[in-house]
Design a protein that fits this description.
By secondary structure, this protein is an alpha+beta fold. Helices cover about 55% and strands about 15% of the residues. The protein has helices at about 15-35, 40-55, 80-95, 100-105, 120-130, 160-210, 215-225, 230-240; strands at about 60-70, 75-80, 110, 135-145, 145-155.
């Protein structure tokens, strides 16, 4: 009989099955969060997110993460296939597509059938020619005019349903946290690297000219200003060659 408890399997009601599915999803997302914490770079984190999305969201065959700057420049950061990067390139070439418009206004954008989609006709026509017939996009973050997006693709029409959207939203929330954490760690590592290089350059000047730390930094800053060169570039040149040039280093 339709809708009976037997539909969920022996000894399980429909409600029990739904609860079990939810518990399984929660466990998988928790495992994902722990796994992503151990990735050693932003790129590795993003690639792990893309691969996990295919395994987690119903209907997804391919997945990718992109950063869109100023609402018109797409920078693919990770993808599970070359096709992902090619589709992002189509959005950039045509100047239209979900990542260039609707994802800024909506948390989720669904393109169920590329062949009948009325929005972004240039993009959808070319995407369909490439074998992508449905797409589901999730907003990860918006910072002024910059956007992060998780894009899911399928070669089947109507590959994504309500469950896909629901699971995808939960997945995207975890992905956004992991992505933000990885970016903050990258920025911290970059700042530490810059500080170390400038410290090495100051040490060279202090030893060579018997300067204090403040005096050595003043020398670097003055050389940077006189040569119109970034302080970090000047410091790298000094530590690599032992020379504090009075002209912009190559």
């Amino acid at each position: 009989m339709a809708g009976s408890d037997n539909d969920a399997g022996p000894g399980r009601s429909v409600t029990d099955a739904g609860a079990a599915d939810f518990d399984d999803l929660a466990a998988r997302l928790s495992d994902l969060a722990r796994t992503l914490q151990h990735e050693d770079s932003v790129d590795a984190t993003l690639q792990a997110i893309a691969e996990a999305a295919v395994d987690t969201v119903p209907g997804a065959q391919y997945a990718g993460l992109s950063v869109v700057e100023h609402r018109r420049e797409i920078h693919p950061r990770a993808g599970t296939a070359d096709l992902v990067f090619a589709v992002d390139r189509v959005q950039y070439d045509t100047g239209e597509g979900p990542c260039l418009s609707a994802v800024y206004e909506h948390q989720t954008v669904h393109l169920p059938d590329m062949t009948s989609e009325q929005r972004w006709p240039n993009f959808t026509h070319r995407a369909a020619e490439m074998g992508v017939l449905s797409m589901l996009s999730f907003q990860l973050y918006v910072q002024q005019d910059n956007l992060g997006a998780l894009n899911l693709y399928s070669s089947q029409r109507h590959a994504f349903d309500d469950d896909s959207a629901h699971v995808g939203l939960l997945f995207a929330a975890h992905a956004a946290v992991a992505m933000s954490g990885a970016q903050q760690l990258e920025q911290l590592n970059r700042a530490n690297s810059v500080r170390d290089v400038i410290g090495q350059a100051k040490g060279i000047l202090m030893e060579r000219h018997k300067l204090t730390a403040d005096q050595a930094f003043t020398v670097l800053a003055r050389a940077s200003q006189n040569t119109n060169t970034r302080l970090i570039d000047l410091a790298r040149h000094l530590t690599a060659t032992g020379e504090l040039t009075d002209r912009p280093p190559r």
